[in-house]
Description:
The complex is a heterodimer of chains A (118) and B (359).
Chain A: H1 3-6, H2 10-16, H3 21-28, H4 35-45, H5 49-65, H6 69-83, H7 90-113
Chain B: E1 4-8, H1 12-21, E2 28-32, H2 35-45, E3 49-54, H3 63-72, H4 75-78, E4 81-85, H5 90-98, E5 103-106, H6 111-167, H7 174-192, H8 201-211, H9 223-226, H10 234-241, H11 243-251, H12 260-272, H13 293-308, H14 319-327, H15 336-344, H16 346-351, H17 353-356
Parallel strand pairs in B: 1-2, 1-3, 3-4, 4-5
Amino acid sequence: MDLFDSGINVTAAKERFMNNEEIFKRYLFQFPFDIDIQQGIECIGKNDLEGAFTHMHKFKSRSGNLAIYKVHEIASEIVDELRVDKCPSEKKTSRLKNEYDKVCNVIRQVEKDGEKLF
Amino acid sequence: MRDTIFVIDDDDLSVELIKLIYGDGAYKIESCSNGKEALAYLTKNYKNVAIILLDLVMPEVDGNVLLRVLNKKGITDIIPVIIMTAENDSRKIAECFKYGAADIVEKPFLPVVARGRIDNTIRLNESKTELKETINKQTREIKDQYKKLDEYNERIMEVLSSVVEFRNLEPNNHVKRIMKMSRIISTMLMKLFPNKYDLTAKKIELIEAASALHDIGMIAIPDTILLKPGRLSADEYEVIKSHTTMGCEVLTLFEDFQNKEYIETAYNIIRHHHERYDGKGYPDNLYGDDIPIEAQIISIVDTFDALVSDKVQRDGYSFDQAFSMITRGECGIFSEDILAAFTKSRSLIEKTDEYVEKK
């Protein structure tokens, strides 16, 4: 499975996690259970931009640390909009959700296969 | 020893990455996820913390607010703070530096970059602290040396004055008594008239020290006049009176060894301690409070000591007699304030070692 095409930059993750695959996987496998993306999208739906910013900022940080770059990119765009009190469009939040769901499926498969990543 | 990196971040993954970066054990990693816990930890453990890594976006108390609190408490002066953030709002970043942040590291960070900047910041702060301590130590040493030098100089002055006193056949310890009494009267004057004469503890010390030189000019008076038994002629008395102005010339020899304030005080004492409040003194016929206060003080204590001391021609007067003669204006004319300080100081003067026997 080409993880890079799926949105996970394993090379960058290896460097960031100092070659510690165990710790990387521990956090990677928690990614599908992230609550900040859900709460962030909910806050956007309710036009609670401050709440949305806090949750999306944290989600963006986590996806960046895990080198899940496609999700990180969209999350960064959303955070930039929220920073200037602009409510992200439904199209953008859907894009984020879709990309997130896609990469989560990949992560679950990696966990199931027990694939060595580093 | 500052052996701890303190991470304030609500994202446990960020904390884990810092632990990985410092997996070699160079520093202990402690963390908390909110501002309140952070302040509680720092209050107890700030002496062990080498650096604070602070996230900006946190719930409840965000990093910006916490940084301001740390800055206000002076913690950023002691412990460097690096902001570790994915925030890229330039205004917020600028504010971080304004409130004492040492550096900003952008998330997600490369381990080698983060480690390099954290280590450098810690080293820089350690060097700064060491330099500050060295400067403080050297400043203290220099101040001690200056103090010793001042003490040596004052001692030289006292010894010189004692030599002059010896030559003048002055009563034993006259200089010491003048010094002690000048401190007593100056202190009482400061107490009775707090803002009137610019007397401070420092000024009083100067007056006491400089009073030792009040008769230094006597060294210029020929023995034939100084040690003449019996009455002096008018011309001989004029020569004696010149000890005030001659003393100022002698003082110029010490200008290089003493600070400006000491020289000025000594000058005023030497030149004017024989002025009278009614303008009939010498050498300049100064009137009233044109006479420097230090000279007025020495004038009354010198007069008193002369009255109570045994001379060749007479025994010393009793304390009662001396106080009465001065306050009734029979020996010199003094201001009401000086007389008030003098009379109120009587019990203190009587208790000084040098006068206990005399009383």
